[in-house]
């Protein structure tokens, strides 16, 4: 069985790339066509079409983590970590932007990520990012049934050195 997990946009706010693409299409009509403008078309399309994703294959227990540009996936097949588990973690990202006029703007993004973790939970491999955790439920069921990856609670092992440092 082959499972394609939800893809995510590489650039969560692609407004700049849409702007580059729009301007590079309009400018040739106003000022005449120049071959260098073609480079800006490619940059705009690259930003708009850039995606990240993962495909899992149960026949040989491998995963294909890819970066897709212009619809062409680039990546390689990797073996799934033995004795792995699956973890769903909530994530928050905030971006602070300042303009030349001194105006500050904050943007907050919340979402959920599906990770493949090893037995000690020290290694995490990102499989998918989504906005709502409900979107991951059908995929988690398939991962448990077909790939024998159990949904576990994230609890990384804390080393003795870290425990000693925290006691101080």
Structure description:
With 168 residues, the protein is of the alpha+beta class. The protein has two domains: 1-79, no CATH class; 81-155, no CATH class. Helix content is 29%, strand content 39%. The chain contains four helices and nine strands; from the N terminus they run ββααββββββαβα. The protein has helices at 15-31, 37-49, 137-146, 160-167, and strands spanning 2-4, 8-9, 51-57, 62-69, 72-79, 85-98, 104-117, 124-130, 150-151. Strands 1, 2, 3, 4 and 5 form a five-stranded antiparallel sheet that branches. A four-stranded mixed sheet has the order 8-7-6-9, with helices on one face. A hairpin with a 6-residue loop joins strand 7 (104-117) and strand 8. Helix 1 (15-31) packs antiparallel against helix 2. The longest helix has 17 residues, at 15-31.
Descriptive labels:
168 residues; five-stranded antiparallel β-sheet; 9 strands; extended
The Cα radius of gyration reads 21 Å
SS summary, helix count? 4
Sheet with the most strands?
5 strands, antiparallel
Low confidence ranges: none
**Count of domain modules:** 2
Secondary structure class reads alpha+beta
Strand content: 35-45%
Q: Average pLDDT value?
A: 86
Envelope shape: extended
Helical amount: 25-40%
Topology as a string of helices (H) and strands (E): EEHHEEEEEEHEH
Q: How many individual β-strands? A: 9
Distance between the termini: 51 Å
């Amino acid at each position: 069985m082959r499972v394609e997990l939800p893809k995510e946009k590489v650039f969560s706010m692609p407004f700049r790339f849409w702007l580059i693409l729009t301007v590079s299409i309009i400018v040739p009509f106003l000022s005449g066509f120049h071959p260098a403008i073609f480079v800006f078309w490619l940059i705009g399309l690259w930003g708009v079409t850039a995606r990240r994703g993962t495909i899992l294959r149960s026949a040989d227990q491998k995963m294909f983590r890819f970066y897709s540009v212009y619809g062409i996936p680039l990546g390689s097949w990797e073996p799934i970590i033995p004795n792995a588990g699956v973890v769903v973690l909530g994530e928050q990202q905030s971006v602070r932007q300042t303009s030349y006029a001194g105006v500050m703007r904050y943007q907050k993004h919340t979402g959920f990520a599906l990770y493949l973790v090893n037995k000690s939970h020290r290694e995490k491999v990102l499989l998918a990012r989504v906005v709502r955790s409900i979107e991951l439920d059908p995929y988690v069921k398939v991962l448990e049934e077909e790939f024998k990856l159990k949904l576990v609670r994230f609890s990384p092992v804390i080393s003795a050195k870290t425990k000693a440092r925290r006691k101080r």
